[in-house]
Design goal:
Elements: E1 3-11, E2 15-18, H1 19-25, H2 31-36, E3 41-44, H3 51-60, H4 65-70, E4 71-77, H5 88-95, E5 103-107, H6 113-127, E6 132-141, E7 154-164, E8 169-171, E9 176-179, E10 185-186, E11 195-196, H7 198-220, E12 229-232, H8 237-245, H9 253-266, H10 268-273, H11 280-291, E13 300-307, E14 311-319, H12 329-337, E15 340-341, H13 344-352, E16 362-363, E17 373-379, E18 382-387
Parallel strand pairs: 2-15, 4-5, 4-6, 12-13
Antiparallel strand pairs: 1-7, 1-8, 2-3, 6-7, 8-14, 9-14, 10-11, 13-14, 16-17, 17-18
Family: Belongs to the thiolase-like superfamily. HMG-CoA synthase family.
Pfam family, one: HMG_CoA_synt_C
GO molecular function, one term: hydroxymethylglutaryl-CoA synthase activity
Length: 390
């Protein structure tokens, strides 16, 4: 039985910062952002968007009534959770109007959470072939204003429906994974901003990729020539390229050219959204699928997932017949076309605007946010969500 991605969608907030202007405001050479790390724009989450609303908006465009009846498992991958106890999946389940006979859980391991969710979903579908699983990767990357990590912030979510007989991609079973207890990136429960050892994290990302790639080749018997493309977790778009370059010489010249060309295509969305942690790998995959029009059915795509702390995994998927018919290219393009650029001053003000930390009630102006699903405020320590379509 084939199991894999039947539908995939994403959402990013309606406002963004231009990275050249951010560099200039920080007295940094703009090329360090646009070329050095490979970022052009950075999505900014207003106070009316959090990891729950981003995930729900990403899923809203891809689900239909049949999905609402068949989805019996919601897995919410995030490191931007809004509650230490209640999962974001429960909120999303209600906001989307899914049938009540369903499981709903949150999975956390830095940027690896959505990948773990997909693997859990595959096991569930193997036991329940008529079921569908909604897997969400939703995050807001925050390092702080005027910090070294500021240029690798971002906000957004990717939603995927995992099912038997998938229409977009069959996920193969040659997975290789690796765990090691390191401190390259972390966010203590008392902090709303992350801490990172940037140089060490980059080194570990590449080391993890090299280790799982070698193990994958041994386990599967496949090599670079068997890959049409490799998509990477992208905290910034140059990161995956650094990893790819460490193995690219294994391939013949025509394969090297193909992989490098397809890598650049896979980074287009991430370049203009920024780091979305758990969703970054799958935004890269979506960018490749939607921006490379001649990507043929039946080809194999490699995927490298990395979550600091750290867990890494390499796995593959095979594109299914007529997969492009099941993409949402126009609606995703509309997200980019309708976004509004904010000034650096506006961005800084938005960044500093947070919900009350003392439990006070607050009512937010949701009319300024064009999203269908928004956070309208807090009452009695409870977040209030609104689906404008309901």
């Amino acid at each position: 039985m084939k199991i894999g991605i039947d539908k995939i969608g994403f959402y990013a907030p309606h406002i963004y910062v231009d990275m050249e202007k951010l560099a200039e405001a920080r007295n940094i050479e703009p090329a360090k952002f646009t070329i050095g790390i490979g970022q052009s724009q950075m999505a900014v989450a207003p106070i009316t968007q959090d990891s729950v609303t981003l995930a729900a908006n990403a899923a809203l465009e891809i689900i239909d009534d049949e999905d609402r009846e068949k989805i019996d498992f919601v897995i919410f991958g995030s490191e931007s959770g809004i509650d230490h106890s209640k999962s974001g999946a429960v909120y999303v389940h209600q906001l989307l109007g899914l049938q009540p006979q369903a499981r709903a859980v949150e999975v956390k391991q830095a940027c690896y959470g959505a990948t773990a969710g997909i693997q859990m979903a595959k096991g569930h579908i193997a036991l329940n072939p008529e079921s569908k699983v909604l897997v969400l990767g939703s995050d807001i990357a925050r390092y702080g204003l005027n910090t070294a990590g500021e240029s690798t912030q971002g906000a957004g979510a990717v939603a995927m429906i995992i099912s038997a007989n998938p229409r977009i991609m069959e996920l193969e079973n040659h997975n290789v994974y690796l765990t090691n207890d390191i401190m390259d990136f972390w966010r203590p429960i008392y902090s709303d901003k992350a801490f990172v050892d940037g140089k060490f994290s980059n080194e570990q990302y590449i080391l993890f990729f090299n280790k799982v790639w070698e193990a994958f080749k041994s386990k599967s018997g496949l090599n670079l020539s068997d890959m049409e493309a490799i998509c990477y977790h992208l905290p910034y778009t140059k990161m995956g390229l650094k990893a790819l370059r460490t193995v690219i010489d294994e391939a013949p010249e025509e394969v090297r050219e193909r992989l490098l060309e397809n890598y650049q295509i896979s980074t287009q969305y991430n370049r203009n959204v920024g780091n979305i942690y758990t969703g970054s790998l799958y935004l890269s995959l979506l960018s490749l699928l939607e921006n490379k029009e001649d990507l043929k059915e039946g080809v194999r795509i490699g995927m490298f997932s990395y979550g600091s702390g750290a867990v890494g995994e390499f796995f593959t998927g095979v594109l299914q017949p007529n997969y492009r018919e099941h993409l949402h290219i126009e609606s995703h393009q509309r997200i980019f076309d309708t976004r509004k650029e904010v000034t650096i001053e506006e961005y800084e003000a938005i960044f500093e605007e947070t919900l009350p930390r003392d439990g006070a009630d607050i009512e937010l102006n949701i009319e300024q946010d064009p999203a269908s699903i928004v956070l309208s405020g807090t009452v009695d320590n409870k977040r209030q969500y609104v689906n404008k379509n309901s």
